[in-house]
Amino acid sequence: MKLNQATDVSLQRFRSLATLTLAAVYFLILVGASVRASGAGMGCPDWPTCFGQWIPPTHESQLPADYQQTYAKLGYAETRFNVVKTWTEYLNRLLGVSIGVLIFLSAIVSLPLRRLNASIPKASVAAFLMVGFQGWLGSRVVSSNLQPGMITLHMLMALAIVATLLYALAQSRRSMMAAQPVTAIDPRFEKWLYIVLAMTVLQVVMGTQVREMTDYIKESQGEAMRASWIEAMPWFFYVHRSFSALVLLSNIWLARLLVNSLGWMHVITRLTFSMIAVIGLSVLSGATLGHLGMPALVQPAHLLAATLLFGLQFLIWMSYRHARDSHKQLTTRRKARLPDPGHIAAAV
Fold first, then answer.
1. Of 164, 163, 168, which is closest to residue 118 (Cα–Cα)?
2. I need a surface site. Which of 81, 220, 243, 304 has the fewest CB within 10 A?
């Protein structure tokens, strides 16, 4: 009994910390997108220091008189100290370090669960190692002077960290999903779930390409021409915009299958409706970007919606698998306890 109580306490502690860490990672994604949209991405032209200092200056007079020439030689010809942009980027970095600490603590807290489910500490430790790699990627983003390809890779790595943390969290919730029966689920659900997942991946890939194209257009036309950026967009921008309606309708159909088979209160049904709300935010923010001249403040919301959608779909997939597998294991055990019909006939 004491062992079970200790395990329950360890599980609850890990779930709480992992949930907090995930929320912090999503907040960092939002902040990072805001930094980029506001043009503060090069507020600190070096890494890990900022203008050669661990704590950046608050005024240009605190820098050497020839600092612009120094950074121009390093490839940053446009470097000019701006206290708002510098401290915005610096605080973004501090937040990244704080999340690294949270992920490290999650890995430590997961270690007592290795006998219960070795996947939990493995995924948690992997997430911590991935954060280290992400930090290195961040330094490459700065050294590349915000090259679009490096920014995209940095973003994809953030999604990989989210997926790894979600995997660990979902593994810690296996017992909870075992109590959520899926025997009555519509047989078409699994096929549609994979279709929706594939559509989301395709939509995210197209969105990444649109974001890179936005950077190129911004570089060629300048920030002052933001309202006309849409006119310079290639064909896949319009495919990406129209495809969002298809993604929304497909997820509504998925929710309909769940409501009709599992009811409104099932965990998977509620997660699916949360996903639809996020898609609605994504469509609304995307429409705002497309029809109102790409306002900078809306770009972070659009990116956050895309990452939330990815995370929710991944969690739905994991939750469904755990509930389905738990039911299969229970059915197998029950069959194993039944007497062999052949033996009964022989006895008669």
1. 168
2. 220
